[in-house]
Amino acid sequence: MENFWDEISDKLKDAFDKAEDRSKKDINLIKNIPAMLSFLGELEGDELLLWLDQARKIKKRRDPKFPPINGDFYDTRSHLTDEEKVILANVRKFMLEEIEPIATEYWLKGEFPFQIIDKMKKLNIIGLTYDKSYGGQGHSNLLEGMIGEEIARVDVSTCTFFGVHSGLALNSIYICGSEEQKREFIPPMIRMEKIGAFGLTEPDVGSAASMGLKTTCKREGDTWTINGEKKWIGNATFADYIIIWAKDVDDHMVKGFIVDRTTNGLTTEKIEDKMSLRIVQNALIKLENVKVKEERRLQNANTFKDTAKVLKMTRAGVAWQAVGCARGAYEHTLQYTMDRRQFDRPIAGFQMTQDLLAQMLSQLTAMQCLTTRLSQLHDLGVMSDEQASLAKVFCTVGCRTITSMSRELMGANGILISNKVARFLGDAEALYSYEGTKQINSLVLGRAITGLSAFV
Ligand SMILES: Cc1cc2nc3c(=O)[nH]c(=O)nc-3n(C[C@H](O)[C@H](O)[C@H](O)COP(=O)(O)OP(=O)(O)OC[C@H]3O[C@@H](n4cnc5c(N)ncnc54)[C@H](O)[C@@H]3O)c2cc1C
């Protein structure tokens, strides 16, 4: 044992003598190693094991599961109340402890980690902005947006699961449901005892959903019969309720229904082999003579304009997701560039690396400021469709740019899923396309700018 320590100590001294060109900090570190080794060499067996055990614990504490880098450069968090900051801190803790360790594994498997639903329930973050009488907490939309950012910062799929349930499905009932429907369906969904999905898109109808759905509904007495297909529906393989949007064959208007997933005639088939959001369970839904009672028809959804009210909210949510995805990629990359050495120095020290990092942080900061203001407008009750569309486009385009720069800065390691940035890069693609593609949201904006519709 003694020889072993002496040998290592000599080798280090030797390396130290040769390392004349190293920085002072490195030299001091190397200088300490022989002293440390000689201390370890004097310990008895049990003492040595105890010491190593302690050292391992310290290392575990210090080993960051997520780099301790603050990607909120303009301190947008300062707009939250103290109570809201605590809620956000709990979400961060949950994401780091429960999701971060499993995200890559489940992403690769393309499976949903069902065990997280029970853990997520305890966070109490569904329906945060809703009125207390429905089980909500009356918090700000800004907090809800920042929660989305915080979740997506670690895993965008988890954020999409959250967004489909609490944004698309729950908001459909909150915005378009009758008072009785809200009281019946919202509280169990807020408690996550029931999970929701939202079925608008169809195999042949994506961007043009406002121009006419192929899925039909027909009323006879108190019963509606729904026929058609829905594609890409998130959470649909396991959700309790799926909001199905269909065109009434009699008045040609779009109507929404709260449909039990287990209803006869409704089948779901998981969409496999995605290169984005692989944890999200997207499904193709077939509806063959599905019978739904009138009491399950969303009583305040009478035209596609009502569906669009739901989409406005969730477009804002996707803009926040893009901020989180970009932030996660930026923070991982910054840490990587500090750790990765080439030409005998951290790559973060090269001018061209810093140029890319500066571009990434500038873009990210602009996105954060934009979404923060958007949510403030939402809280004031004046957020418009066009403002939500602008944020959705700006942030998802920025997210694509930042995640791609991240990958570039990580060299070959950037294409390894285990290095996380590749996961963010893939996930950015779905954000770019869902809730209205870049083109569709730009057309919404273009119409507002010019007063001329250029959709068709
Ligand atoms: C991961 C994921 C999850 C999703 N989850 C859901 C969900 O839960 N529920 C749901 O209902 N849907 C969901 N979607 C569907 C999503 O909303 C649609 O993919 C989106 O609306 C675009 O439709 P599309 O894919 O059919 O593309 P298309 O409409 O076929 O568009 C293809 C291309 O043509 C362009 N284009 C179309 N029309 C025009 C035009 N007038 N001018 C210029 N360009 C145009 C588009 O911008 C796009 O680039 C999800 C999609 C993904 C990828």
TrEMBL record:
Family: Belongs to the acyl-CoA dehydrogenase family.
Domain Acyl-CoA oxidase/dehydrogenase middle: 197-290
Residues in Acyl-CoA dehydrogenase/oxidase N-terminal domain copies: 81-193
Cofactor: FAD
Organism: Bacteriovorax antarcticus
Keywords (A to Z) from UniProt: FAD, Flavoprotein, Oxidoreductase
Domain of life: Bacteria
Entry-linked InterPro entries: ACX4-like, Acyl-CoA_Oxase/DH_mid-dom, Acyl-CoA_Oxase/DH_mid-dom_sf, AcylCo_DH-like_C, AcylCo_DH/oxidase_C, AcylCoA_DH/ox_N, AcylCoA_DH/ox_N_sf, AcylCoA_DH/oxidase_NM_dom_sf
Lineage of origin: Bacteria, Pseudomonadati, Bdellovibrionota, Bacteriovoracia, Bacteriovoracales
Domain annotation Acyl-CoA dehydrogenase/oxidase C-terminal: ranges: 308-449
Protein name: Acyl-CoA dehydrogenase family protein
